[in-house]
């Protein structure tokens, strides 16, 4: 998936969480954040620390590949 804006990231996280049948609380606990914070992330709010996103990705088994833009 190509992520260009917070809404893309939000959709990826929420879809993966639901696919794995995890609650927001399950993912929030693994990432060290509150359930309310995860809910804001899933709604596309910006301003989330990158390390938080990486912890969420780890819990959801999402791989991050980065490459320079063409």
Please render the helix and strand layout as text.
Blueprint: H1 6-19, H2 24-31, H3 35-42, H4 50-60
Give an overview in words.
- With 70 residues, this protein is an all-alpha fold.
- It is built from 4 helices and no strands.
- The protein has helices at residues 6-19, 24-31, 35-42, 50-60.
- The radius of gyration is 12 Å and the shape is globular.
- The model has no long low-confidence stretch (mean pLDDT 95).
Alpha-carbon distance between the two ends: 16 Å
User: What is the strand content?
Assistant: under 5%
Number of continuous helical runs: 4
Helix content: 55-70%
Characterize the biggest β-sheet: none
**Unreliable sequence segments:** none
As a whole number of angstroms, the C-alpha radius of gyration is 12 Å
Please identify the structural class as seen in this structure: mainly alpha
Number of beta strands: 0
What is the mean pLDDT? 95
SSE order, one letter for each helix or strand: HHHH
Overall body shape: globular
Entry keywords:
70 residues
Compact description:
The protein has 4 helices and no strands.
